[in-house]
Write a structure and sequence with these properties.
This protein has 217 residues and is an all-beta fold. It has no helices and 12 strands. Helices cover 0% and strands 57% of the residues. It is globular, with a radius of gyration of 23 Å.
Length: 217
């Protein structure tokens, strides 16, 4: 295309696994164990498109992953609000493996302002996912999120480059990971209020600024 090149990729996949290993929650707070399960399935697609020229680099990528259990049985999840008296949840074929977002995408653009100065940015999108421990898919999902990042670099010498970047430009509040816990386990922690929600989340990085230099020998 004119003075640039356009590349694209598309891949489809499907994998059925017997005697797969998954991590399940333990009765010990904050711990987990690995367990074999009869069958799982992972299927989906990966696709990308990229245009590159002497001054421009533009790209977009997307992946869809449908990861499911393919058996009927129970798995341990003692802190799940829907667990039975034995601390188990019931899994059926088609239930999604928790902690795995089905949709992920990224698009970016770099522009070479001069032969030595480059600016750019990207946007990453991650879909919702089930909380780890919600193998039966009975609870609300951990919400998806999107992030914007910008960066610039300047080549001050043949082997020396300075750079700066801002991650999470709009200071989005989001969670990378979610699971369950027993609120009674922190009942004596001196908190001003009693905890009743069994969900717990690991939050992502807020807006962050970085700068530095790269030296090549």
């Amino acid at each position: 295309m004119a003075d640039g090149r356009l590349d694209w990729k598309l891949g489809l996949f499907r994998t059925d696994t017997a005697d797969d290993i998954v991590q399940v929650a333990s009765v010990i707070q904050g711990r987990g164990v690995f367990q074999n399960v009869p069958r799982t399935r992972r299927q989906g697609l990966e696709t990308s498109l990229q245009y590159q020229s002497p001054r421009w680099l533009a790209y977009v990528s997307y992946s869809f992953l449908d990861a499911t259990y393919q058996f009927t049985g129970t798995l341990s999840s003692p802190n799940n609000p829907f667990a039975d008296e034995d601390g188990n949840v019931r899994v059926a074929p088609g239930r999604h493996l928790p902690g795995i977002p089905a949709h992920q995408g990224k698009l970016g653009l770099d522009y070479r302002v001069t032969p030595v100065w480059k600016v750019g940015g990207d946007v990453a999108v991650v879909g919702s996912q089930y909380f780890v421990g919600d193998d039966a898919n009975q609870n609300a999902k951990l919400p998806g999120y999107w992030l914007a990042n910008v960066h610039t670099s300047y080549q001050i010498a043949k082997n020396v480059e300075v750079f700066a970047l801002v991650n999470n430009l709009f200071d989005k509040r989001y969670a990378l990971f979610g699971t369950f816990f027993d609120p009674q386990g922190v009942a004596n922690a001196g908190l001003p209020i009693a905890l009743t929600d069994r969900r717990t989340e690991v939050f992502g990085q807020p807006r962050s600024f970085y700068g530095g230099a790269r030296i090549r020998f």
